[in-house]
Amino acid sequence: MNEQQAIKPYVIGLDLGGTNSVFGIVDSRGEIKATTAIKTQGYDKVEDYVAASVEALQIIIDQVGGIEKIKAMGIGAPNANYYKGTIEHATNLSWGRGIVPLADMFSKALGIPVGMTNDANAAAIGEQAYGAARGMKNFIVITLGTGVGSGIVVNGQLLYGHDGFAGELGHVTMVREGGRPCGCGRTGCLEAYCSATGVARTARELLASTDRPSLLRELNPDQITSLDVSIAAGKGDEMANEIFQFTGKMLGEACADFAAFSSPEAFIFFGGLVKAGELIMKPIREAYNNHVMPIFRGKAQFLVSGLDGSSAAVLGASAIGWEIN
Amino acid sequence: MNEQQAIKPYVIGLDLGGTNSVFGIVDSRGEIKATTAIKTQGYDKVEDYVAASVEALQIIIDQVGGIEKIKAMGIGAPNANYYKGTIEHATNLSWGRGIVPLADMFSKALGIPVGMTNDANAAAIGEQAYGAARGMKNFIVITLGTGVGSGIVVNGQLLYGHDGFAGELGHVTMVREGGRPCGCGRTGCLEAYCSATGVARTARELLASTDRPSLLRELNPDQITSLDVSIAAGKGDEMANEIFQFTGKMLGEACADFAAFSSPEAFIFFGGLVKAGELIMKPIREAYNNHVMPIFRGKAQFLVSGLDGSSAAVLGASAIGWEIN
């Protein structure tokens, strides 16, 4: 522990999700000392959201000895611009239209530095600070949730690009002709196939296009989730296993392209879909080894997140606090 | 000019090609003060190659005032390992089998620091030092020659990855099913379509698979080059124009994926194929704008190399000399 950490041993992390805003006060080893939460929605104005946040935060700040014990705050949020500390055009947040200078607002309200980045970048910083990427300087975190996100670390630094928006690996094109529509407005993106919703969609397509038996036929097709597919695969269901094979193969082929870009020492997978374990990790590794350029073969590790699932997003956000001044 | 540049105002660049090894002594503005060359091949032992190089170099070193005027040497070479200063398994060089510590050998022979990287990375450093990327911190140089190479700069630094081999963008997979064989042993790579040899191959395939008239039919198919296609396109030949459309479209789609990775402010194209000018640049830009994620649209510039063609490779190699200590 260095001198500054002895004086200010904590950072605040905010995982700003579409439904809940979860706050944690975290020490340098990634231990969460106190936590609280408010609803993200229901505020017309961002000022009201920040005021409600600070009110909830004050209680846990007092628990750890007051604001003078806290070095900084990190926010992981959708549509976050790291360079400007703004949330931009987050139309799914009631107070998120236009350009919202959220980092500045929290900084003024709390009197500490505040940094902000998107969820996947926060996950990457969290893995580096407390998780599976400790000591690594070149790695890629791929988040498999509602969407597919990524945080890319090169030379020890998160890759932001010239505008702050680099690392959108969920939106490389994997199917160039006749690909699935993607939420980004284009077609064939990795996210359209390999997110949790993509996996459910693969299941619905397979069920509709074949007569093959499957445990998944017992479910309402419109309500099938990636968890249902995972459970069926765990019971040995052939179609469910095939869905994970298909998903993992595409992810492994995508990672082979990513290796040609930044040659990371590890790919770290994070998010709900990772709970399927070897069902998804094995086909990822196999497809990677079959498709990667020979010069990179056998060099990269394939890891699952080293952060505790329920608090991973808060930990990731908090880690931004150690990075800023 | 800083103090060190006043004392040691020059660097040596070596463009180590399969046929010729071209040396230049370069000042900080990218002006070549003296140049010489030897044949790359014909030496059984690397010691003999280095001795012949130093003998040729001594003459131009004396021309600029002696070795004490020279800060360092940079080498751009195939199969170069930046981290180790070695050439690895360059089976097409008579003295290049195994692992050759070429940077160390030149450093001992000349008494100055020597750095080495591959040709495309050297081009990227050259563009940053003297060319189209001056002042840029995030850009990608794509070399379109016998192969497709790339040098990626992020946060002002060349991206080497954990093993020194990052930035092999010629080997992302663009055609996932039934793609062309590539020199790397896989299929469907960008390089198999968009290198100069890929363009010639596209021409041969189109000529063989259709009866359409074309100026290219006047040539021996086996000897068609990308320059022939460029000349025919310049005369308004429809098939030749279609070949550039096809090539540029694939490059533009690839760049759209690269934007999702590192969000560069510019893509800079370098090498023989770039001489086709707007014939290739226009379809690249169009395909990029049609395929890139909306968040990146309209942000990146598409530039051609700012380095003088005949000396670009030497300039790029020399620029490594400014980077090392």
Give a quick set of tags describing it.
homodimer, alpha/beta, 5-stranded mixed beta sheet, 10 helices, 13 strands, 38% helix
Mind explaining what this structure looks like?
Two copies of one chain form a homodimer. The first copy, chain A, is α/β, with parallel strands linked by helices. The first copy, chain A, is built from ten helices and 13 strands. In chain A, 38% of the residues lie in helices and 20% in strands. Chain A has a five-stranded mixed sheet with strand order 3-2-1-4-8, sandwiched between helices. In chain A, helix 4 (119-130) crosses helix 10 (312-323). The longest helix of chain A has 25 residues, at 238-262. The first copy, chain A, is globular, with a radius of gyration of 20 Å. The mean pLDDT of chain A is 93. The interface between A and B is large, with 43 and 43 residues.
Topology:
Two copies of one chain form a homodimer.
Chain A (H helix, E strand, L loop, with lengths): L2 H5 L2 E7 L3 E8 L4 E8 L6 H18 L6 E7 L3 E2 L4 E3 L10 E2 L1 H9 L3 E4 L1 H12 L8 E6 L3 E7 L2 E2 L31 H5 L1 H14 L16 H9 L3 H25 L3 E5 L7 H14 L9 E4 L7 H12 L2
Parallel strand pairs in A: 1-4, 4-8, 9-12, 12-13
Antiparallel strand pairs in A: 1-2, 2-3, 5-6, 6-7, 9-10, 10-11
